[in-house]
Write a structure and sequence with these properties.
Elements: H1 10-37, H2 41-69, E1 72-74, H3 81-94, E2 100-104, E3 111-114, E4 122-126, H4 127-132, H5 135-151, H6 153-160, H7 162-179, H8 187-228, H9 231-246, H10 250-253, H11 283-297
Helix pairs in contact: 1-2, 1-6, 1-7, 1-8, 2-6, 2-7, 3-5, 5-8, 5-9, 7-8, 8-9, 8-11, 9-11
Length: 302
């Protein structure tokens, strides 16, 4: 990991390593299991290679996929001088490469970061967040997003999310391979085994990603707050964004669902509820952490 001035978090590093190891082991186990379960081991192997290809594609083009999903555009310093100026200052403060900058024409106030490496990263904000936050709050949000880039947790989330896609591909391949054997030769049991194993892999990867996603958001809150030394600005921004998201019609929230796990605040209603399926910690938990940092820094609370 490249050196930068964001605070290091050994807990995040350990969790990312564990998640990648477990999901890699699950994927290998799934491929090997299906090679024994279906009548065509070669087919299972080829689908496994296809799953790896999907993971590689997501890694290689994660920035383009996310930007396309949000209908966002990359902007130059001439097109968005204030936004670029903030990111320039924060990158200099953090001693990290400057990512590309994007804007999505969307009323929902939000922001996200994506990309396979700090050199290929992009930090994107919506027009809604530019209209909702003041300069200090927006800077706090950008520091949060730059922390994701510096810690490379976006890359891990992108690769890890491929496990579910690969599991689905393998399930369909196993169904094809099993059904090709015919009912009399045991094709149906093979299909049931393949579906069961694939569902287990998907369920485990789903929970692991949620646990990692919630921790990485808390880590980015901490890192961004310590970088700017203004945790109260991030707390105010999170509160405003959450209120803005809750005011957006449900049909418009669905427009950002493709990158929901990357948003600083999830584009869902009732974000204060903490569940196993939540991609983000509750707003209360995040505000409590920022309040503790505020007290530690000895600054008056807002």
């Amino acid at each position: 990991m490249a050196t930068n001035r964001f605070i290091k978090d050994s807990g995040l590093t350990a969790r990312m390593t564990l998640v990648m190891f477990l999901l890699g082991a699950l994927f290998v186990g799934l491929v090997v299991g299906l090679m024994f379960a279906v009548d065509s081991p070669g087919l299972a192997f080829l689908i496994g290679v296809g799953g790896i290809g999907v993971a590689f594609y997501q890694w290689w083009s994660s920035d383009k996929v996310a930007m396309r999903a949000m209908r966002a555009r990359e902007v130059t310093p001439e097109q968005a001088p204030e936004l670029h100026g903030m990111i320039d200052r924060l990158c200099a403060l953090a001693d990290m490469p400057k990512p590309r900058v994007g804007i999505a024409d969307m009323a929902m106030p939000n922001a996200f970061a994506t990309g396979r490496s700090p050199d290929r990263a992009v930090v994107c904000v919506t027009t809604g967040i530019l209209q909702t936050l003041d300069a200090e709050e927006l800077e706090a949000v950008l520091a949060h997003e730059l922390s994701h880039v510096a810690h490379r947790d976006v890359l891990v989330m992108t690769l890890a999310s491929s496990a579910g896609i690969a599991a689905g591909m393998l399930t369909r391949g196993a169904q094809f391979g099993g059904l090709s054997r015919g009912r009399d030769s045991g094709g149906a049991p093979a299909v049931l085994i393949a579906i069961t194993v694939s569902l287990v892999v998907y369920a485990i990867s789903f929970l692991l990603l949620r646990l990692l996603s919630r921790y990485r958001e808390l880590c980015a809150d901490r890192s961004g707050a310590y970088l700017t030394m203004k945790p109260q600005a991030l707390a105010s921004a999170l509160t405003k964004i959450a209120g803005g998201v809750n005011a957006i019609p449900q049909r418009d929230l669905r427009a950002g669902s493709a990158v929901n796990s990357l948003f600083i605040v999830p584009a869902v209603r009732g974000m204060t509820l903490q569940t196993l399926t939540a991609t983000h910690p509750s707003l209360e938990q995040r505000l409590e952490q920022l309040a503790r940092i505020q007290a530690e820094l000895g600054r008056p609370t807002a």
